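User: I'm preparing a small set of examples for a lab meeting where we compare how different chains pack in three dimensions. I only have the primary sequence for this one, and I'd like the structure in token form so I can line it up with the others. Please keep the answer compact; I'll paste it straight into my notes.
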Amino acid sequence: MKTYNYTSIPSQCFLGEGPYWHAGRQSFFWVDIENGKLFEHNLKISETKTRSFPHRLAVVLESEDGNLILGLDRKIAKFDLEIEKLTWLCEVESDFPLHRFNDGKVDTKGRIWIGTLSTKFTKGSGALYRVDKDLNPKKQLDQLTISNGMAWTADNQTFYFIDTPTRKIKAFHFDIASGEIEFERVAVDIPEELGFPDGMCIDQEGMLWVAHYGGLGVYRWNPISGELLDKIELPVPHVTSCCFGGENLDILLITTAQENMSSEQLKEYPLSGDAFMVKTNTKGFKASRFLH
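Assistant: Understood. Below is the structure token output for the 292-residue chain.
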């Protein structure tokens, strides 16, 4: 496996997550969920800006007009970056105050896919929703514990999905017209010693880049054969998510966390909670925007 060089962006997140490349602003976004912080790192001027919200902020996506779509607690909102104003769009699981969003993506038809979990990590309490332009969330999967990473193949035939504690990446048949999914197979089984699969993205060769929580890096998996192809080793144990960005979509932004670490571990891994940028030999895809 090749050695990757990384650049760290200081953010010291308790739970860094939600990386997103905004091509229009030439910026990477990511969040610190529990502290409600939104980070924006502009690649052109290498400057990082922070915004704060009085909510747990888990998901960053993009609207068709270039503004942000945010997953705050259990509500989805549009965020105008110029006037810094939130417009609430919809809510899920309003009768479960301990629940929050965890990860989200937009498919090529402009629909939001967003999952939930209980902050007590109660087994089977989470779900995955699809939000079409009617803003009416429709449950796609239930009995999830930590709804997490998602990716679609370039031909839109397959949807990959992670429920973290299962240590499995599942492949679903994806109907692009209706947005319906149907379980097909387990694409990758993650060995226990490699930690837990968290957020992920897909490259133009159809391979999955998966952040491994407790696994000290991002791993590249072949979802057809199930084999491990590569690893980006990082100086932090809890690696949470990743996305491709940059002008050529060949820079991986990787988020990490400080949670579940003792003070001794934090001394041993002082960069925990920072974001990392790594140049790869492969490219990702430009993210789709929410059409509403």
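A couple of notes for your slides: Helices lie at 263-268. The chain has one helix and 24 strands.

User: Perfect, thanks.
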